[in-house]
Amino acid sequence: MTEKKILIAEDEKPMARALEIKLNKAGFETTVVFDGVSAVKELQAGKYDLLLLDLMMPNKDGFSVLSDLKEIKNKVPVIVSTNLNQKEDIEKAMDLGAKDYFVKSDTTISEVVDHVKKVLGL
């Protein structure tokens, strides 16, 4: 099996680094970007199997990234990783095409790997 490529869009650098290390150790190839504009550009430039997307980022928030992906018909599965836990935020993200959603403060890094594997069907 070839390595699955994951794009991590997370503006909190320590969190991004922790996700990168854990996902790499789990056998995934990762790329990290720190804002929504870079996430959309990277998805248009490269082939990714999954996007791990924070909602609160500079330049373009995660909701806008989801809208852009829908508009350009990019079908990459998206897992939203955020500290927004309002029902409305979850529903909005899922309506915009997110496949999964978790609250960072309630989820361990190991559980994030489980979310990724589940969405990728591994």
Automatic annotation (TrEMBL):
Keywords per UniProt: Phosphoprotein
Chain ranges of the Response regulatory domain: 5-119
Gene3D superfamilies documented for this protein: 3.40.50.2300
Residues modified as 4-aspartylphosphate: 54
Phosphoprotein is among the record's keywords: yes
Domain of life of the source: Bacteria
GO biological process: phosphorelay signal transduction system
InterPro entries membership: Bact_response_regulator (IPR050595), CheY-like_superfamily (IPR011006), Sig_transdc_resp-reg_receiver (IPR001789)
Protein name in the entry: Response regulator
Native organism taxonomy: Bacteria, Candidatus Magasanikiibacteriota
